[in-house]
Amino acid sequence: MTESKSETNGILRAAWLIAVITILSKFIGFLRDMVLAGHYGASTVSDAYFYANQIPSLAIILLGGVGGPFHSATVSVFSKMIPNLNTKPPVEVNKLYSTFFTGTFILFGLFSVLCYFFAPQIMSFIISNGSEELITLATEHFKIMSPVILFGGIIGIYYGLLVCYKQFTLPNMSPVVLSLVIIIAVLLCGDDPNGLVLAWATTVGGLLQLVIQYPKLRQIGFRVKPNFEFANNPNFKLICELLFPAVLSSTIGQINIYIDMFFASSLREGAWTAVVYANRIFQFPVGILVTAFLVPLFPLFSRYVADKDFEGIKNYFNKGVGVLFFISIPIIICVLLLAKDAISLVFERGAFDTQAVMMVTEALCYLSISILPYVFRDSITRIFYSFNDSKTPFIVATCSILLKYILNVVLITKLNMGIAGITLSTSFITLFNAILLGIFVSKKIKLDYGSLFKNLGKMLIAGMLTFVICIFLSKWITVMLLPKYVSEVVRIVVIGSFCFGIYTLFNFILKMEYANELYVRIVGKFLHK
Does 459 share its domain with 380? Predict the structure, then answer.
């Protein structure tokens, strides 16, 4: 019992550390987006950059980022092979690392070269509804950023090895490097009419993300030597069995984004930029939550699977997802009530005008309703990866492609919802994936959904009551005669604070266990002092 409590406290400490680092990273990312929005607004140039950056982003953020397939496969396999975190990795671990690195370098290097030479065809296919100017400019951006594809997989391996050794700071801090490089480049070369400085800065920033990880890996004891022993290598085969379906799953998931890009290219100028900014704002709170709790939990899940301790998995899954649900609901309320004020306050300057604010607000509000299924889907996916099963998430993601296309046709073409239709269909797809994964995981482990969703029901009741009260508060503040930016700050601070406070109070009244646990921890901290 003491060991379990100690492990829980260790996870919570790691979660807080990762949360703080991720908040800093997301904050710098916000500054980057503010600089980009001020210089390029929601325009053809910004659309071209974001269209071209989709495949490099797939490599460096989704495939190679924290929680991505390369990171997850590395943690899943290597965490079971490392006997002692306080000593240098054994020879067989170092050898497997070299094999994995060599294979990734060859495969992603080849893909990077192909993307460079076939950039015009790739961009023409993705933006087939776009203007010739947009396609040509996106092609130039894509050629410059093609090396980022090579960096992505290697970064994911580095992240995974560092996390295995409980080195959480570097993997979660390194995205800051990319944001800082872009900020500096745009501020120094802000008069670039085609925005090519964005593409160059993205490539340099991606390379630096890779470079800063390497010294820590060498200090731990990892040495890379070209190793081509891909055949008759059980551990490398295990990595591939886990990795390739996960990569395909992430890539298949990107097809949904390419479907969105196809439909967005037929909408007004800046439509895809608005969707991208909405996603980035969405990822600010959600990314912090998911990263903070799931990064330290995933190695624990993998060890529990290896030990066949299924009760431990159930316990920590319910705790982790329950806390994510608890925090997510007031975030949804705040987005629905305060999105326009926050976006205007942060972005409305320079080339980013009122129309752009409304476009991003519309996209974000419809996207925000996916927060609950999003955190559940990402949490349940870690269970599958812990069982070395990435095929099931891949199959589920594949099944969602046709549904995504149908939803876009109905919402965008038939109902004329425009940008809102893109993000609303994304929310439906996230819910669809979460439900299927939640059902299929029962083949591996019977999770305790009863207590989890009973608590969620109480949270939703508290959330609905909070939402109604906050609507009246919002209307009262609106009638106050205050200058625009002052009004926005007042609304964000007052309504946001009141929302979290009243929501927590209602959860106390409903005797929701996470609220009581939060209260006990806070009181315990103060009494301890």
Answer: no
Report yes or no: 525 and 492 within 8 Å, Cβ to Cβ.
Answer: no
Shared domain for 314 and 457, answered yes or no, is: no
Residue 210 in any domain: the answer is: yes
**pLDDT, tens digit (0-9, with 9 covering 90-100), for 86-107:** 778 888 888 888 888 898 899 9
Considering the domain architecture, whether residues 526 and 437 belong to the same structural domain is answered as no
147-162 pLDDT tens trace: 999 888 888 888 888 8
Residue 1 counted as domain residue: no
Which are the contacts of 508, defined by CB distance < 8 A and separation ≥ 6? 515, 516, 519
Q: What residues of the chain score a pLDDT lower than 70?
A: 1-19, 62, 64-67, 190, 249-250, 253, 291-300, 478-482, 514-529
User: Largest Cα–Cα distance of the chain, in whole Å?
Assistant: 74
- Per the domain annotation, does 392 fall within a domain? yes
Measuring CA to CA, which residue among 150, 107, 406 is closest to residue 259?
A: 406
Helices marked H in 44-131: 44-52, 54-57, 69-78, 91-117, 119-126
Positive or negative: CA dihedral 78, 82, 88, 94: negative
| DSSP letters for 416-445 | --THHHHHHHHHHHHHHHHHHHHHHGGGT-
pTM: 0.73
Name residue 466's amino acid.
Answer: T
For residue 460, CA distances in Å to 3, 8, 222, 330, 484 come to 34, 26, 48, 10, 33
DSSP 352-398: --HHHHHHHHHHHHHHHTTHHHHHHHHHHHHHHHHTT--HHHHHHHH
Distance CA 271, CA 40 (A): 13
Count of CB atoms situated within 10 Å of the CB of 223: 12
Tokens representing residue 175 in the block? 């995205």
Which structural domain range is residue 273 located in? 9-447
- Please count the other Cβ atoms lying within 10 Å of the Cβ belonging to residue 346: 19
Does residue 128 sit in the same domain as residue 214? yes
170-173 contacts, C-beta under 8 A, 24 or more apart: 170/212, 170/213, 170/216, 171/66, 171/71, 171/213, 171/295, 172/18, 172/21, 172/22, 172/25, 172/66, 172/291, 172/295, 173/21, 173/24, 173/25
For 127, how many CA atoms within 13 A lie in the half-sphere containing its CB?
30
Cα torsion at 496, 38, 23, 209 (round to 10°)?
A: 170
Pair (336, 322) in one structural domain: yes
**Cβ 403 vs Cβ 426: under 8 Å:** no
Structure token digits, residue 359: 């476009």
pLDDT of residue 3: 47
pLDDT given at position 6: 53
Please tell me the distance from the alpha carbon of residue 434 to that of residue 371, in angstroms, as a whole number: 11
Out of 422, 447, 472, a domain closes at 447
Taking alpha carbons only, the member of 509, 513, 510, 508 closest to residue 452 is: 513
Residues 254 and 146 in one domain: yes
